[in-house]
C-alpha cells in the first residue's frame, strides 16, 4: 500500500482529480512492484512448470535440442511406468511410516523436554538447556558420518528405524516449546497444582492443549521436512524395499540408463502429498516457519 | 470470632513463627497468626507487604523458609497443596481457556479420576449455587468478568474445601461489579460457613467482608482485629493511615502534661485539648491523628474552633462533602454533610472532636 499525505490543497481539490492523482501515484509504484513480483514468480515457478511439462513428453522429445514449452505429443507413459513398473507404492508407505514416526516422536519428545526445561526444577536443568542450544548450532550434515556409524553399531542400517533415528534430533522444536510453555501464566499451573494435577496431567491437559496451535504447526513442518529429506535416507538404506519416495527417485532407471521424464514424474508424485498438506495447512505452516525463523534468527 | 453453627471458635489455620526469605530479601519475618474456624479473615496491606506471600504459604505454593503452618491442628508445612484441603481463587481467575465452564469446574474431580457422571453432577450442583447453569457449555472467553469470577469460585467450591483462599479476587472487576460480587461473596460465606482467607489491598473490601482483618506492613503484622476495632482503635499510625477513606489527618503536637489516661496536648495554634491515652504512656512530643469526619467546619471566630484555614478544594460526593483545607499545620481533610455550605478560597474554622482523636508516639505506636 502507498501512504498518501493529505495536504490542504488535497482537501480543497475536487474529489475526482484527487482520486486521479492518487491513482496515478498508485499506478507507478504498483507497476514496479507488480513487475518485480511477476519476474520473481516466473523465475521461481518456471523450473516447476518445466519439470511438470517434461513428465508429459515422450523421452525423445525431452532429450532433443531446443526449448519446447509444451509437449508435441502428450503422453502419460512416464506416469504409467512409474506407477506400474516401480515400487512407488511401497516407497510412499515407507515415507509415510518414517515421516509419521519422526513427527510423532519429535513432537512428543520436544513437548516433554520443553516442558521439563521450562517448568520443572531439577539438577542439571541449565546444563541440558545449554546442551540443546549448543546442539542446534551444529549443522546435521556435519554429523552424518557419526550418525551412520552410530546407526550401524545399533544395527539399524537399512531399516526404517535407521532412517528415523537421526531425524529425532530436533533442538529447535524443543526451544519453541520451551518458549511457549514459559509464556503460560504461572496461575494456570498453580491452580492445577492445587486441584491435584500431576506433572503429566499438567502437560497433557493444560500446557499442550493451551498451545495446540504450536503443536500442529510444528507437527506439519516436521512432517514436511522428514518427507522431503533425501541425504540421510539415501545413505541409511540400500535395499529398494526400505526406500523413501525421495530415495526411490534414484531407482527409476532401466537398462537404457536415465529417463528424465520418468525421473521427473516420480519427483512430481513425491512432492504431491507435501504440496497438498501445504495447501490445506498453509497458515499453520507459515506460522511454524516464522516461529522457527524467529529462533534461528 | 463467632463461629457458624454454634461451634466453639477454634483455630483452623495457624502460622507459627513463619519466615519467608527470597535470597537476601526477607518478605515475611517471624510471623504468627491464627485464623478461627468459620471466620472470614482479610489480609490487608499495601502492595509488597507480603500478604499474597502469606496466602501462598498457607496454600503450599510457596515453601516456608522457617516456621510451621497448621491446618486443623495438622502440621501441613511440607504437605503438597492438593492435600491441604484448601481451594484458591486467583486474581487472574486462571480459568483454562480451552475448557468449557463445566470442564473448568470439574477439573479437580477429573484429575482425581472421578467418573464422568459424578463430575457432571457436582459441576451442575455448583453451577446452580452460583447461577452458572446457562453457561456450562461456554468457554471462559465467552463469559463476562463477573461470570468468570463465579466460575473461578465454582472451581474452588467443587472441591468442598475446608479453607477458601482468595487472592485479590475482585481487583479485575469494574467498580459496580465489584460491589455486587462482594455481596455474593459475603452471602456465600454466610451460606457455607467455611473458613475464608482473603487477600486485598482494598480496605473497603476488607472492612465490608471480613470479621477479622490482619493488617500487614513490610512482612510484619501491624494489627489484628475486627473492622471497627481497627478503625476506632488503631494500634499504630500505619493502621490509622491505611484504614479509612479519606485517610486520617496527622500533625505534630506537644504534650504539656499527662494525667493518668489523658494527655494535655498543645495544638499548633496554642490551644490545649485533652486526648485519651493508654495508661502509662509517656512522651513529650507526638503526632495527633484525627479522622476527616471528626473535624467540623465552623465559623473562624467561633471560640470552639481549634484551627482556621482556607478551603483549597471541595469534592461533593452527594451524601458527603470532602474539603481540603490549608491550615498552619498543613493540609487537613474534612468530611462534612452533603449540603455543606463552603466555597473554594473561603476561610473557615475547624472544631476538633477530641474524644475521637488519637496520639501516636515517635515510633508510630498509639499512645
Radius of gyration of chain B: 24 Å
Strand order of the largest sheet of chain A: 1-2
Unreliable runs of chain B: 1-8
Chain-averaged pLDDT of chain B: 88
Strand fraction of chain A equals under 5%
Structural class of chain A comes to mainly alpha
Would you write up a description of this structure?
With 297 residues, chain A is mostly helical. Chain A has two domains: 8-55; 78-296, MetI-like (MetI-like fold). Chain A has helices spanning 8-12, 15-55, 59-63, 77-85, 88-119, 125-135, 144-153, 160-164, 171-182, 186-194, 199-210, 212-228, 231-236, 245-248, 260-280, 282-296; strands at 253-254, 257-258. Chain A has a two-stranded antiparallel sheet. In chain A, helix 2 (15-55) packs across helix 15, helix 4 (77-85) packs across helix 15 (260-280) and helix 5 packs across helix 9. The two termini of chain A are 27 Å apart. By secondary structure, chain B is α+β, with helices and mostly antiparallel strands. Chain B folds into two domains: 4-238, Rossmann fold (3-Layer(aba) Sandwich), CATH 3.40.50; 249-360, Beta Barrel (OB fold (Dihydrolipoamide Acetyltransferase, E2P)), CATH 2.40.50. Chain B contains nine helices and 20 strands. Chain B has helices at residues 51-59, 101-105, 107-111, 116-129, 145-157, 175-192, 203-209, 227-232, 237-242; strands spanning 11-22, 25-36, 40-44, 66-71, 74-75, 86-89, 163-167, 195-200, 212-217, 220-225, 249-259, 262-266, 272-276, 285-290, 295-298, 307-316, 320-327, 330-337, 347-352, 358-360. Chain B has a six-stranded mixed beta sheet with strand order 6-7-8-3-9-10, with helices on both faces. A five-stranded antiparallel beta sheet of chain B has the order 13-12-11-14-20. The longest helix of chain B is centred in the middle third of the chain and has 18 residues, at 175-192. The interface between A and B is medium-sized, with 18 and 23 residues.
Amino acid at each position: 500500500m502507498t501512504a498518501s499525505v493529505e495536504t490542504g490543497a488535497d482537501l480543497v481539490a475536487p474529489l475526482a482529480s484527487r482520486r486521479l492523482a492518487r491513482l496515478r501515484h498508485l499506478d507507478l509504484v504498483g507497476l514496479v512492484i507488480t513487475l518485480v513480483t511477476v519476474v520473481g514468480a516466473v523465475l521461481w515457478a518456471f523450473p516447476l512448470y518445466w519439470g511438470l511439462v517434461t513428465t508429459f513428453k515422450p523421452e525423445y522429445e525431452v532429450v532433443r535440442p531446443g526449448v519446447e514449452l509444451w509437449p508435441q505429443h502428450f503422453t502419460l507413459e512416464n506416469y504409467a511406468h512409474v506407477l506400474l513398473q516401480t515400487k512407488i507404492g511401497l516407497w510412499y508407505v515407507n515415507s509415510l511410516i518414517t515421516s509419521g514416526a519422526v513427527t510423532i516422536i519429535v513432537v512428543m519428545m520436544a513437548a516433554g523436554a520443553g516442558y521439563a526445561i521450562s517448568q520443572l526444577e531439577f539438577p542439571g536443568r541449565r546444563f541440558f538447556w545449554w546442551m540443546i542450544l549448543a546442539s542446534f548450532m551444529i549443522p546435521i550434515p556435519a554429523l552424518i558420518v557419526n550418525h551412520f556409524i552410530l546407526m550401524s553399531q545399533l544395527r539399524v542400517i537399512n531399516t526404517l528405524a535407521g532412517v528415523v533415528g537421526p531425524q529425532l534430533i530436533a533442538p529447535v522444536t524443543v526451544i519453541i516449546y520451551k518458549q511457549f510453555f514459559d509464556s503460560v501464566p504461572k496461575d494456570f499451573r498453580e491452580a492445577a497444582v492445587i486441584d491435584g494435577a500431576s506433572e503429566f496431567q499438567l502437560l497433557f491437559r493444560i500446557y499442550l492443549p493451551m498451545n495446540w496451535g504450536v503443536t500442529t504447526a510444528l507437527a506439519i513442518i516436521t512432517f514436511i521436512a522428514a518427507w522431503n529429506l533425501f541425504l540421510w535416507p539415501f545413505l541409511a538404506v540400500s535395499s529398494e524395499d526400505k526406500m523413501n519416495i525421495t530415495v526411490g527417485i534414484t531407482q527409476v532407471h532401466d537398462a537404457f540408463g536415465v529417463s528424465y521424464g520418468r525421473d521427473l514424474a516420480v519427483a512430481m508424485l513425491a512432492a504431491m502429498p507435501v504440496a497438498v498438506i501445504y495447501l490445506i495447512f498453509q497458515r499453520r505452516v507459515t506460522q511454524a516457519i516464522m516461529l522457527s525463523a524467529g529462533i534461528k534468527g | 470470632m463467632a463461629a457458624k453453627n454454634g461451634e466453639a471458635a477454634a483455630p483452623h489455620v495457624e502460622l507459627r513463627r513463619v519466615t519467608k526469605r527470597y535470597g537476601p530479601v526477607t518478605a515475611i519475618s517471624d510471623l504468627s497468626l491464627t485464623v478461627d474456624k468459620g471466620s472470614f479473615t482479610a489480609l490487608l496491606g499495601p502492595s509488597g507487604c507480603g500478604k499474597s506471600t502469606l496466602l501462598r504459604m498457607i496454600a503450599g505454593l510457596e515453601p516456608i523458609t522457617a516456621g510451621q503452618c497448621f491446618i486443623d491442628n495438622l502440621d501441613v508445612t511440607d504437605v503438597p497443596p492438593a492435600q491441604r484441603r484448601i481451594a484458591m481463587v486467583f486474581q487472574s481467575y486462571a480459568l483454562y481457556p480451552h475448557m468449557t465452564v463445566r470442564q473448568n469446574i470439574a477439573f479437580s474431580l477429573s484429575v482425581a479420576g472421578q467418573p464422568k457422571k459424578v463430575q457432571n453432577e457436582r459441576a451442575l450442583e455448583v453451577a446452580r449455587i452460583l447461577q452458572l447453569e446457562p453457561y456450562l457449555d461456554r468457554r471462559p472467553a465467552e463469559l463476562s468478568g463477573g461470570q468468570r469470577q463465579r466460575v473461578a469460585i465454582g472451581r474452588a467450591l467443587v472441591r468442598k474445601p475446608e479453607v477458601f483462599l482468595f487472592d485479590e479476587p475482585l481487583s479485575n472487576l469494574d467498580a459496580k461489579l465489584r460491589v455486587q460480587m462482594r455481596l455474593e461473596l459475603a452471602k456465600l460465606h454466610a451460606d457455607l460457613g467455611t473458613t475464608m482467607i482473603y487477600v486485598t489491598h482494598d480496605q473497603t473490601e476488607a472492612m465490608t467482608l471480613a470479621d477479622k482483618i490482619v493488617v500487614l506492613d513490610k512482612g510484619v503484622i501491624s494489627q489484628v482485629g475486627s473492622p471497627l476495632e481497627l478503625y476506632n482503635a488503631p494500634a499504630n499510625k500505619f493502621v490509622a493511615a491505611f484504614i479509612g477513606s479519606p485517610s486520617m489527618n496527622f500533625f505534630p503536637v506537644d504534650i504539656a502534661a499527662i494525667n493518668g489516661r489523658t494527655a494535655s496536648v498543645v495544638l499548633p495554634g496554642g490551644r490545649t485539648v485533652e486526648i485519651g491515652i493508654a495508661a502509662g504512656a509517656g512522651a513529650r512530643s507526638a503526632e495527633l491523628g484525627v479522622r476527616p469526619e471528626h473535624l467540623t467546619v465552623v465559623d473562624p471566630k467561633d471560640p470552639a474552633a481549634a484551627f482556621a484555614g482556607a478551603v483549597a478544594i471541595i469534592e461533593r460526593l452527594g451524601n458527603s462533602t470532602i474539603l481540603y483545607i490549608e491550615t498552619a499545620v498543613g493540609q487537613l481533610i474534612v468530611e462534612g454533610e452533603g449540603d455543606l455550605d463552603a466555597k473554594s478560597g473561603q476561610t473557615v474554622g475547624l472544631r476538633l472532636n477530641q474524644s475521637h482523636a488519637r496520639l501516636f508516639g515517635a515510633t508510630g505506636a498509639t499512645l
